[in-house]
Amino acid sequence: MSRDTLSVALIQHQDAGSVEANLDATAAAVATAAANGARLVVLAELHTGPYFCQTEDLATFDAAEPIPGPSSERLAAIAREHGVVLVGSLFERRAPGLYHNTAVVFETDGRQVGTYRKMHIPDDPGYYEKYYFTPGDTGFVPIDTSVGRLGVLVCWDQWYPEAARIMALSGAEVLIYPTAIGWDPQDTPEEQRRQQEAWITVQRGHAVANNLPVIACNRTGHEPDPSGHSPGATFWGTSFVAGPQGEFLARAGEDAPEILAVELDRGRTEAVRRQWPFLRDRRIDAYAAILKRYIDPD
Q: pLDDT tens digit string along 125-141?
């Protein structure tokens, strides 16, 4: 099997204080990544501003934008200028009072070729996303691009094997997770590490179970709670790429912005699936119960 590779870059992001500053930082990082050969560039979740879901504030809805809109047009221009396929993440205003957490994919010529609206929406202390985001309705459908079929999901989706599996069954060649996840500074160091390792492990499991590379691009840095009611959130970075057997191909640090570059071997999925034919051996005749919320005892 001939070796065909794809150069990928993850832009591990730290909030720069404004939409303009964040998009300028994105433009500079994409320029660097492209100059180093990247053909696919992945950005972190909601990278045009701070992670605003630490609090519930009506005024925050004013920051949402239509797609297409100013931020998506800037991302399109960045993709076009540098000739890369670009995966961004925006707070979408779909209609009055209707908002989504939306990933947007741009082709090398700047065309918007697909969107994915986040399906699984958390609601936890410091992550009040149900207040802001309507669950997505795009389904788990890969997006076709010049660099391949991308299985784009978003953050909380990464805990759900069903989402990864449906993307794989739909022909995704890579799973991509723009992410904003971090530690509660009040948790013990032991609990913080358990959470971080769980986050890494579950996504490596998706790579193994589906024999697909996984790209997880996270934020980094401390962001204060605007309400002052908590110590804020410290995003743990650690963006990474895993191969089709869960092997680490590249890992970023925890504490700083970073451009993480990796070469994906396009032939690995085929080779691994010949050895581990998980899709062949699925018992689709026996999985009806997965559609239940919970299987109550008789």
A: 999 999 999 999 999 99
Q: Is 130 a catalytic residue?
A: no
The answer to whether residues 100 and 128 touch, using CB atoms and an 8 Å cutoff, is: no
The confidence score (pLDDT) of residue 2 equals: 44
Check 53, 65, 118, 217 and give the catalytic one. Answer: 118
Catalytic one of 45, 65, 129, 258: 45
User: Is 292 a catalytic site residue?
Assistant: no
258 among known catalytic residues? no
Q: Name the E strands within 61-166.
A: 85-95, 98-106, 112-117, 143-145, 148-152
Which residues, in sequence order, are CB contacts of 196 under 8 Å at separation 6+? Answer: 183, 236, 238
The residue annotated as part of the active site, out of 129, 155, 223, 258, is 155
Integer Cα distance of 90 and 215 in angstroms: 18
Q: For 37-47, what is each residue's pLDDT tens digit?
A: 999 999 999 99
Write the burial class of residue 51 (CB in 10 Å: 0-12 exposed, 13-18 middle, 19+ buried).
buried
